[in-house]
Amino acid sequence: MSTDQNTIVVLFNYGGGMRGLIPAYLMSAIEERTGLRMSEMVDIFAGPSTGAILNAALNVPHDDDPTQPKWRARHMVKFYEREGSKIFPADRFRDFRAFVHDFNNRTMKIGQLQNLMRKGHYDPSYLSYCLRGLYGKRKLSETLKSLIIPVYNIDGEQLALVEEAGESANTPVHTKNNFVDGGGHAVWLKHIQQRRNRLKTPDVELHDAILASAAAPTYFPCHHFKATHAMSGKTVEYSGIDGSIFDNPCISYHGAIRQHIEAGTRVIMILLGTGYTHRSFKKEAWNNYGGLGVVDPMNDLPLINILFHAPESALIESFRQELGDDLFVFNKSLVSDIGKPDAVNLAIDDAGSENLKRMSHFSEAILEEQSQEFDRLCHILVRNRDSKPQKRSFWSKVFG
Question: Which of 88, 141, 251, 290 has a CA positioned 20 to 30 A from the CA of residue 229?
């Protein structure tokens, strides 16, 4: 299957904490098979949380040759293997501390106890340190290819309210098109290099944007940061949490990507998963959970998991029909392996050596089961790279 300059390759990496090791393995296999780097073959990188960590790292320019990426996918495999246990240190009492903190908030309001409990979050300082190691002080505008970072901003008070005709300054709720504009909202921080609807990139460090996108609720606290928008020159403050709250490949394509692609362009979209974790429930089991049981971590947060997966399940069929054979999905269920000795832990914070091995085997199983699709994709990626004008390396420019 041929490609040409009217082809755009989009890569979407899912969120999933430590399970980001799975798409890191998959991309390492792609780079090994093709002999190319992901930023040479992909035009637009998208995805939240751990997917955003990967996407940004693979697009950071090398210090010695800014036309080449600093990191390969195999470096990111090592990153998760080396740093995971420090980002998610073993803590048997994390859930208990979170429970005591919540109980304290509802009853005693003891400030000292609240400080001691640390609210059940992991300390984000080491994750922040690791992201500095990956990105330094590079900004979103410096990435090699187009990058879209989803963040959910929980603090609507930081936004400029939009008033409609007839609203006075004392109107308690300001609206725009009948939607309340004062609450939290989805944010896509974009560096777009495509010609159509090209945006001026907001002035924000990759470290801040990624740390916010990876702030998974109950695991890390929200990350407060500032971004200056190029069009208005206005600096906006965000209190960001995990972009997985709203983002999935269907929403990302229709809400953040499609408007930047010229009519008649062939879109090849690659979805690299971190394992499907949604499961079904019998009505008796669901009803037995009760009001609190549906959000209890001991039950694997059933309602929250449903809310994460429901939008994609509603859109995926029409999404598949639109892209047809140009949609490549490399993923499989984790739920079906529960109880097996080699099952990957569904929890996003298991950085133990045994779970790392299981994720490696899980990635290999995906590639084995989809070997023909993998071969076809690698062929398309190489053709896409070869069909487009190539940037001369820094050193070739220097030495002519």
Answer: 251
Consecutive H or E run containing 13: strand 7-13
pTM: 0.86
The beta-carbon contacts of 244-248 under 8 Å, at least 24 apart in sequence, are 244/14, 244/15, 244/48, 244/49, 244/150, 244/216, 244/308, 245/152, 245/186, 245/217, 245/308, 246/150, 246/152, 246/186, 246/311, 247/15, 247/47, 247/48, 247/150, 247/186, 248/14, 248/311, 248/312, 248/315
CB atoms within 10 A of CB 252: 23
User: What three-state secondary structure class fits 45?
Assistant: strand
From its phi and psi, is residue 89 left (phi > 0), alpha (psi between -120 and 50) or beta?
A: beta
Strand partners for 235: 228
Q: What is the pLDDT of residues 16-70, one digit of tens each?
A: 999 999 999 999 999 999 999 999 999 999 999 999 999 999 999 999 999 999 9
Angle formed by the axes of helices 353-369 and 21-34, nearest 10°:
50
168-211 pLDDT, tens per residue?
444 444 444 444 456 788 999 999 998 877 778 999 999 999 99
Q: How far apart are CA 222 and CA 219, in angstroms?
A: 10
| Three-class SS state of 176 | strand
